[in-house]
């Protein structure tokens, strides 16, 4: 589940926009049945928050800065195991930043 919002500022700051996103995941689990045992791999619920700020420089150029997973939460996007490969857990992305420039002709 996710929820994101973007606000375009007013007045002298009308070329700016700011926003955020919160993604929430309920518990995640995988029941593993091997030939000699069975067990459950489980992760509790978690939330990941992102922020963004953008600026429309002119009618051609738009800049945007994104900060993802701002609290640097460690979490899994998938959990599992196999008798051949062992653990097949997949970590979510750590905190990251991206600056993008979009130019329209």
UniProtKB/TrEMBL annotation:
Gene3D superfamilies: TonB-dependent receptor, beta-barrel domain
Subcellular location: Cell outer membrane
Membrane topology: Multi-pass membrane protein
Keywords: Cell outer membrane, Membrane, Receptor, TonB box, Transmembrane, Transmembrane beta strand, Transport
GO cellular component: cell outer membrane
Signal peptide: none
Extent of motif TonB C-terminal box: 88-105
Keyword Cell membrane: no
Keyword DNA-binding belongs to the record: no
GO function term, MF aspect, one: siderophore uptake transmembrane transporter activity
Pfam families cross-referenced by the UniProt entry: TonB_dep_Rec_b-barrel
Residues in TonB-dependent receptor-like beta-barrel domain copies: 11-70
Subcellular location, principal: membrane
Similarity field: Belongs to the TonB-dependent receptor family.
Name of protein: TonB-dependent siderophore receptor
Source organism of this protein record: Pseudomonas syringae pv. maculicola
């Amino acid at each position: 589940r996710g929820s994101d919002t973007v606000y375009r500022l007013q007045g002298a700051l009308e070329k700016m926009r700011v926003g955020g996103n919160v993604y929430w995941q309920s518990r995640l689990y995988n029941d593993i049945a091997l030939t000699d045992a069975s067990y459950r791999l489980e992760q509790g619920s978690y939330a990941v928050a992102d922020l963004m700020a953008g600026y429309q420089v002119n009618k051609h150029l738009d800049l945007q800065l994104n900060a993802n997973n701002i609290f640097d939460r460690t979490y899994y996007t998938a959990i599992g195991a196999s008798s051949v490969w062992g653990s097949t857990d997949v970590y979510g992305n750590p905190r990251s930043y991206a600056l993008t420039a979009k130019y329209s002709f």
